[in-house]
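We treat protein structure as text, and this decision shapes the records that our systems exchange. The tokens are whole numbers drawn from a learned vocabulary of local backbone shapes. Below, we set out a record of this kind in full and without editing:
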Amino acid sequence: MTLLETLARGSGAIASYAAVGVLLMIVGFYVIDWATPGKLSEIIRSERNPNATLLAASAMAAVGLIVAASIWSSGGRLAEGLAGTAVFGLVGIVVQTVAMLLFDRIVGVSVRDLVQEPELQPGARLLAVTHVAIGLITAVAVI
């Protein structure tokens, strides 16, 4: 294989994984949006709410970890890697959402209440770390 062919193939793989990763982050964002009152993008953009921003950012970081681990574990098999990335990313998003709902029910940390607070709250920090931890756990499980 020539250098040009290798570069073209690698660039195509990068673009494909990036597209799947971006789609998963969009899905993750809208799942977080579903779990919060109001329109999350409005709360972040207009109200500049630090709790909503931290929760959304940590969810995106968690999805990014899962995508990176899926790419790593694909071993260069593009089709399998893309399928695995999509499936594992969706599983990670579901687990993050379930964790948020469990924290609301069991621990009493309500996402709905947090995004209505104008100041950064300890509960938002806790949920953000939970998002990243779930992303890391899922990522390691993929590898």
